[in-house]
Fold this sequence. Notes:
With 142 residues, this protein is α+β, with helices and mostly antiparallel strands. It contains three helices and five strands; from the N terminus they run H-H-H-E-E-E-E-E. The N and C termini lie far apart (80 Å).
Amino acid sequence: MEIDAWVWWLIGAVGLGIPLVLTAMPxxxxxxxxxxxxxxxxxxxxxxxxxVLVFVAVSVALIAVVRPIAARHRxxxxxxxxxxxxxxxxxxxxxxxxxxxxxxxxxxxEIWSARTLDSDQTFEPGQQVDVVDIDGATAVVM
Length: 142
């Protein structure tokens, strides 16, 4: 029993789809799309040269067009701050007097120890302060 060329191209497309799923490299998907197009050419009766040319042309065209667009969109997203980086720049309320040696603030619903950025500065309870840094378990405020 002889297997038609278009079936081989589809087997190749599936084979290229496996590393796409395992490695999340979109290039494999573009090669798989090229193999599917080559399978269509084979099913329509195109020769092996036409099949290979379609495979190469579609794969290269997809890589040349889709990759730059995907890279551009990937770079547009702002970085997502997590952990202590997400606390920097937020406002807090002073609970106990904060000066260069210490104090307490309420930051993001939690009570934090705090100290001022400038050792000469002081903040009284009820005042709003900006968190400029987190030093260990202490918020540095101004």
